[in-house]
Amino acid sequence: xxxxxxxxxxxxxxxxxxxxxxxxxxxxxxxxxxxxxxxxxxxxxxxxxxxxxxxxxxxxxxxxxxxxxxxxxxxxxxxxxxxxxxxxxxxxxxxxxxxxxxxxxxxxxxxxxxxxxxxxxxxxxxxxxxxxxxxxxxxxxxxxxxxxxxxxxxxxxxxxxxxxxxxxxxxxxxxxxxxxxxxxxxxxxxxxxxxxxxxxxxxxxxxxxxxxxxxxxxxxxxxxxxxxxxxxxxxxxxxxxxxxxxxxxxxxxxxxxxxxxxxxxxxxxxxxxxxxxxxxxxxxxxxxxxxxxxxxxxxxxxxxxxxxxxxxxxxxxxxxxxxxxxxxxxxxxxxxxxxxxxxxxxxxxxxxxxxxxxxxxxxxxxxxxxxxxxxxxxxxxxxxxxxxxxxxxxxxxxxxxxxxxxxxxxxxxxxxxxxxxxxxxxxxxxxxxxxxxxxxxxxxxxxxxxxxxxx
Length: 455
What we know:
By secondary structure, the protein is of the alpha/beta class. The chain has 19 helices and eleven strands. It folds into two domains: about 140 residues, DNAb Helicase, Chain A (Orthogonal Bundle), CATH 1.10.860.10; about 260 residues, P-loop containing nucleotide triphosphate hydrolases (Rossmann fold). A nine-stranded mixed beta sheet has the order 3-2-4-5-1-6-7-8-9, with helices on both faces. A two-stranded antiparallel ribbon has the order 10-11. Strand 7 and strand 8 form a beta hairpin. The longest helix is centred in the first third of the chain and has 29 residues. The radius of gyration is 28 Å and the shape is elongated.
């Protein structure tokens, strides 16, 4: 009777965390399948077996894939619950360690019971029995000694941080529902998102759109590192006012002069939305200063605008590689999310103008490791066009998922923008292609006649 009532060592939350991490971030957590077997799970062995079979077939067992294949409604709801429970995948090895150790404890208990029963059975060869049991126990000991990585050294502080959030995953989203759907709800603590584009491609506007959404949703601090030498705190304030009023900078200044009371009311409305949680720091800063600032302020999200503006490096490539690497590690250590804004290189700008997407910014190789999602923006507005001429603005920008560990990548969306306030409306056009516009080309004449042109 005692055996029937006895509960063997297990941790349901750790099992759920292991499965949720694989579903959310398969590419970083696929080592789970080398470290655990179906028998290591006390409650979730069936679901792990399904994920492992997909892994062995070369099909990433990611959230969307499983959702599409899950016929049973209870399984579908369980998968949703597993993904929603994931707050960060940075400490996935720690959860694997917990599940494996508890599995080995259960195996040891089973061996101990067999050892006890065998010791009472005087009809068996005791020496052979001991050799068999010792061999099995050595197998358990050997498996326990397999290194699976050290637990996250700051796990305790991060668990306190999660508790303060009421277990709500503090995802950074763009605030544009279709984009956030593709990246499975947003970026978790310990992860990063890169926003790449040429000057004027609305990188800052998209980042601020996500910042407002993050603060209003999670009530967590955002640190905005304004390292772009061409911008200052005034620029960010003006962008927020433009988005709120849907006016150009000149119109906002005019509104401030002509309607000071209404202007003050609008400014107060923005401040109320920010809840005092947006802290803007102007550069220049070197990488040590950036790291020190993030450690001191302890944000939920840090926006780096822009990556290669961090000072102290010989060239942009060295800068980008160092910044992505160090801040990527720092995010995992402290449990915050990075938002990297990066300028498009000259070759990539040229490729964009020819209708080609998926071209990375400086240091893109290292960005592959530091970011889970990379978004490339392209605005067809010509630099020589007057900014106050609203008619010459297109009604949006192209966004390409150049990297997406959370789902589909390589495709392009067209995001509708309300000009001149540069505010994203949330409306999206699917399956679009940017085609190089036809331009006039001068043709060398075969005689001394007048130069002609053709489309």
